[in-house]
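Need C-alpha cells for this chain, all 157 residues.
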Amino acid sequence: MIVSDSPELEIERTFDAPAALVFSMWSDPKHFAAWMGPEGFTCPVVEIDFREGGAYRALIVSEETGESWFSGVYQEIAPHTRLAFTFTWNNSGPSAGVETLITLSFEERDGRTTQTFHQATFLDNERRDSHRGGWTSAFEKLASRIEALKAKQETTQ
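Here are the C-alpha cells for all 157 residues:
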C-alpha cells in the first residue's frame, strides 16, 4: 500500500488471477454486488451502464450504518487494463455530494494481476483515511470472490 500526505488514496493489490477476471469484478454487476463494500456490508442493488459516459449506481448496507448509495459516470474503459470513473456518495454523510475520481490499472504477469487503485481528491485526510479502510476491506472480499470463482471453475473442469 502506498500512503501519501495529500488527500489522495492509492492502494495496490495483487490477485492470483488473470486481468480479464479481475477487471470483470468491476464491470459485471453480479460480480460487483458480491464483493462491494467493507466487511459486514452487502450490496443488494447494482445498476451498471458499462460504457464510456455510462452511469452506475449501487447501494451498500450494514446493520451498523444502514444504507449508503453511491454513483458515478465511466470516464475511460480500456478492457482488462484501465478503468476510470467518478464516485459520489448520495447520502447525508460528511462526504455527501463530493465527487472524486477513481482510476484503476490492471497489470497481468504470469497469471497474476496487480490492481492499482487511485482515488482523488478528498476533502481532507480524515475522509481519505476512512476510505482507505473501507476499500482495503472490500478488496479482501474481492480476493475471496476471485478465489471462489476459480475454485468453482476447477471443479467443473
